[in-house]
Amino acid sequence: MAILERHMNGAILCLDIGTSGLKAGVVDSELAIRFSNFSKTGIFDNTFDLDDCLATICKLVSELSVLAKTQHIDICAINVSGQMGGIIGLKRDGMATTPFDSGVDIESERFNEKLHAILGDSVISTTCGSPRNTAKILRWKEMYPQVYKQTDIFLPLHSHILAKLTQSSPNEIPIDHTMLAFFGNEDAKTLSWSKDLTEALGLDLEKFPNICTPCTQIGVLSASIAKNMALRGGIPVFAGLGDQPAGLAGADFMQSEDLFAVLGSTTLLFGGYQDFQPDPNRRIKFIPSITGDKLYPFTYINGAGLILPWFTNLTGESTLDDQHLRRLTKEAERIPPGSDNLLLLPYFGGSQCPYDSHRRGSWHGLSFTHTKAHLFRSILESIAYGYASDIHYLQEQLHIKPESIACTGGGSKNRLWTQIIADCTTLPVQTQQSYHCTLKGSAIPALVGLGLKNLPITEHKPDIEASNTPNAARTTLYAPYRSLYEQATTLPSVELNTRLSKFGYQS
């Protein structure tokens, strides 16, 4: 008999360790969120600490545990999802040999360029197409050989947390196959490490974790950690999964042919569900699905969602001040489409779709007439232009015919942003409850592992918070900017600014 069936009111404790925050939720067997909790992290402002991360998780969970007990809910399993970019070097005893090397940290970009040079077409023909973590490991090996030598294993952040929860050696913690998407020495067809690619890079395969399915139990909650969480020891702990496939599963997108946009710390666009078909233009990347039989094609702009807190910091306001963001949004609503001839290229974290190690963020058309509201709106518009361009490309390459865009992530709470996306893409945008998607998706592998569910799970309905319908008049106004955005990567700055100046001011 499955564990939850022995408890009339059993539930899964789900954790999501993201770039912007830590989420915790109690999810029942019907994928309903009974309770949830959230705390911001310091990854973006370089105040992130691994020990603080675990302490914060324990605090969040202990608060939920108290609430669960008041309703006689029994936590029967634990699963953790996490950001897919970023690694930590660890010894067998759990001591860290490196700080957390975040996915939005571009210090390793020149090693990413080297990885592309060494592997050549194999980056597209063999891997998922977006090498990030392996380039970081290559950096540690070549710049800090002693650190690399002392490191027994490199793990993603949430896998490190799983080792702490189970009091296991990091070497005993596998990663699930969805996490392969952002390494660079994986085989996308077999969902395994490629020995040939690893050797070509001069890296040691034993420093990479074993690979399992997301439905694999890897241990139990240790008594000492359980005490700090106000839980009982011995609760089954599962292997975890990437935050993006967790969000897709939680949004009932496990086998969808439609579009799914994520306005998170990194902005992503998913389109369809298919077998591995490499994109010769290197623009489409792939993330393995929870089931492992197919993959999700996607495009993304690394760190694009972090431009907003970066900009907020520049204006002298705290990123924790939601009122300031609301004020900026209200001011930006009064700015016309196109932000009075202002165009942002949002590649602050470099370009991955396609890969260009030298591309960076830049504003074009800036003048003394532009205010912070103009700059703020142009940030929102730049992501929408990117989505419009990528949707057109996905339609051409994958032959999909989307009717709408499902949208999640912290940025999806901003109604102005989702309206701009609708206007630029000419597709309705349906916003889903951001926290719920990832937490629900994290619960699914645990429920399958406990024998309560079978994959794929499609019977649950996503929670729609709001919808935005395209406005034809604004779509027309955005058209020249969308076109210029697509050409911007090949145009000299002088030509780009000249074309912007010809659009004419609308304020």
Question: Could you list some keywords that capture this structure?
Answer:
Nucleotidyltransferase, domain 5; alpha+beta
List the helices and strands and how they pair.
Elements lengths: L9 E8 L3 E8 L4 E8 L9 H21 L3 E9 L3 E5 L10 E2 L6 H11 L2 H4 L7 H11 L1 H6 L2 E3 L1 H10 L8 E2 L9 E2 L4 E2 L1 H6 L10 E2 L4 E4 L2 H6 L7 E3 L2 E2 H8 L8 E5 L3 E5 L13 E4 L6 E7 L5 H8 L7 H12 L9 E3 L5 E2 L2 E2 L5 E3 L7 H27 L6 E4 L6 H11 L3 E4 L1 H16 L14 E5 L3 H16 L5 H9 L6
Parallel strand pairs: 1-4, 4-14, 8-11, 15-23, 23-24
Antiparallel strand pairs: 1-2, 2-3, 5-6, 5-7, 9-10, 12-13, 15-16, 16-18, 17-18, 19-22, 20-21, 24-25
Short description:
With 507 residues, the protein is of the alpha+beta class. It has two domains: 3-245 and 436-449, Nucleotidyltransferase, domain 5 (2-Layer Sandwich), CATH 3.30.420.40; 304-396 and 473-501, ATPase, nucleotide binding domain (Nucleotidyltransferase, domain 5). The chain is globular.
The averaged pLDDT comes out at 90
Low-pLDDT regions: none
The fraction of residues in strands falls at 15-25%
CATH class of the largest domain: Alpha Beta
